[in-house]
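--- STAGE predict ---
source: upstream dedup step, 1 unique chain passed
mode: sequence only
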Amino acid sequence: MMEIDTCPQCGSNNIKKNGHIHNGKQNHRCKDCGRQFVLSTECKVIPEEIKCLVKKALLERNSLRGICRIFDVSMTWLLNFIVVLYECLPNDLNLQVIDNRNGVIINRLEVEADEMWSFVGKKKNKQWIWIALDAETKQVIAFFVGDRSENGAQALWDRIPDRYKNNAIFYTDLYESYKCVIPEDQHEPVEKHTGLTNHIERFNCTLRQRVSRLVRKALSFSKKLENHIGAIKYFICHYNNTISHELLAKSE
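--- STAGE serialize ---
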């Protein structure tokens, strides 16, 4: 605990009591500069085990307010924690390249691509999530959040690893934007009933059910685009990491 007997802004001792803040602590005001502050401030240290549990809670359909209530942390701390967590996520999405699959060397990879609707701030501000998934390993190889136009499809294609660009067949729905960016000899537009996009459709369902920001009828939607993208990337990195560990365990 640190005792402050001067104004933290101007250093004046000419201070007076000025009501109480939201948690009942005595508030003070500097008569010289007008700054309001609390004399006795406490810095709450969050244990590492709580931080680990918060990381797990962020992977489930929990609101940020709910996480604050469960683990007795402030919203300010949680938001700062999330910013640092999202900044440390790897750009490769924890993608594990598997060359030998089920004992067979694969010469032609298969990728399923699709887009799903979301919004930031308000439903009029639509943000489409473009996702490409390896059909064999079920890992997400790339994603992009933006508008549902050729620009969005191009941004997804630009993020796909060269290994897949040069040696994969891409299964998509009949949306025209894919035809504009995926080479014709690598593109296979299909209807849903063919089953060739089942894996990406199932992952979209998982993503929407696990990430609270994507639930259609809820108050947990994102207010900032960067946090929206960070939450999706955080889940995908965790998802890929889990899948890759399972793949490595099977190959041993």
